[in-house]
Design a protein that fits this description.
By secondary structure, the protein is α/β, with parallel strands linked by helices. Helix content is about 35%, strand content about 15%. The protein is built from eleven helices and twelve strands.
Length: about 290
């Protein structure tokens, strides 16, 4: 694949899970640049895994703050697409290039049936659409249609043009009263605000349903429950799926261990030290 890809993720858990994800990215993507940031000062740069400065606080359902930090960091770099990930996923096979067949600017994976969105956070976004209109007004935009766009936070893709568009307008967005209202309500803006702005600005979406049960069945992705051992154990004699999410951030988790072993990752001393720490923490938390 000749496309230049930059990956990025926020880190709030032990750094070993970021290391494992980085290994899986390198395994199936040629010479990737992987950026991460932590508002808890976790992790360090090495190889093509680069730590960037966090300018904002990262909270659950508020990880658009990481996206904004990343877009500001990469806007002047040479790349084709930026891919935002979470540390509870792993690549396990080649095939990511299939996503990039044909030009597009962002992934839009809101699940709709008969035109009615069944995703909780898209419904809540729709209920607060007046606040979103205030953002559009400040940006000189209007809604193209009534559809709510969005994308699971574990795998979001933005073209270079889309990155530049949002990066140039972050200050306006963050200071808009409508945005501040939606942020205060905790509306999971990390999965909604950028896709909707790009849609209404006329950028080209790739409508793709990567979740479990979707046509792209080679992507084992969903919000919950966690990927179980039984879902990956069968892979001994078959091809693994391209990507798995969510995996428990636990080195004792059998599904995680099976996937890592299948792609050639070997637990080292740092992994064992982290595993020992996890075990001691568990014993201490459950002490009598």
């Amino acid at each position: 694949m000749s496309l230049k890809l930059i990956f990025g993720l926020p880190v709030a858990e032990q750094f070993i899970y970021t290391k494992q994800l980085y290994y899986s990215i390198k395994k199936f993507c040629h010479d990737p640049l992987v950026l991460f940031s932590s508002d808890k000062d976790i992790g360090h740069s090495y190889d093509r895994l680069r730590k960037i400065k966090n300018k904002r606080e990262y909270k659950y359902h508020q990880l658009q703050n990481f996206i904004f930090d990343a877009l500001e960091e990469i806007r002047n770099l040479n790349f084709d697409y930026f891919i935002k990930l979470d540390s509870d996923c792993l690549f396990a096979n080649s095939g990511i290039d299939g996503i990039f067949a044909g030009k597009f600017d962002f992934l839009d994976s809101v699940d709709e049936n008969d035109g009615k969105c069944n995703w909780l956070w898209a419904k809540k976004f729709s209920e607060n659409i007046g606040s979103y209109h205030r953002i559009l007004s400040d940006l000189g935009l209007s809604r193209k249609d009534a559809r709510i766009s969005g994308c699971l936070g574990a795998f979001q893709v933005h073209s270079k043009e889309a990155v530049n568009f949002i990066a140039d307008r972050i200050n306006i967005i963050e200071n808009n009263p409508g945005y501040l209202t939606m942020k205060q309500k905790g509306l999971c803006l990390d999965e909604l605000i950028v896709p909707n702005l790009l849609k209404d600005a006329g950028f080209a979406p790739r409508l793709t349903y990567l979740h479990e049960g979707a046509p792209q069945s080679s992507w084992r992705m969903r919000w919950r429950p966690y990927i179980g051992k039984e879902e990956v154990a069968y892979a001994a004699d078959r091809d693994l799926n391209i990507m798995y999410h969510p995996l428990k951030r636990d080195l004792r988790d059998e599904a995680r261990r099976i996937l890592l072993e299948k792609i050639g990752y070997r637990y080292g001393l740092k992994d064992m030290a982290a595993l020992s720490y996890d075990r001691m923490s568990s014993l201490w938390a459950n002490r009598i």
